Amino acid sequence: YPSNLQHFLTIKLNVETYLILESQFTSISISFDLMGYIDGSKPAPPMSRCGTTEISPQYIE
User: I want to staple 45 with a disulfide (CB 3.0 to 4.6 A). Which of 11, 25, 55, 58 is the partner?
Assistant: First the structure.
């Protein structure tokens, strides 16, 4: 997964570029299977493993 979306978004956000940037962001989100997290249809993985303070590897992905 991308750690920094700035590499994939080719323009800066302003009033005139909003629709283009929204289209790019949506395409990137779909291609990396992230739309479910954005629209709420896919729950976020647990932050830690059950009963521990260890961070879950799924949360980091």
Answer: 58
CB 29 within 8 A of CB 35: yes
What residues have CB less than 8 Å from 33, skipping those under 6 apart?
Answer: none
CA atoms within 13 A on the CB side of 56: 10
Q: What's the total number of domains in the chain?
A: 1
And the tokens for 23? 């289209």
pTM over 0.90: no
- The amino acid at residue 45 is P
Per-residue pLDDT tens over the stretch 3-59:
676 777 778 889 999 999 999 889 988 988 889 988 989 887 777 766 777 776 666
Residues spanned by the domain of 14: 5-60
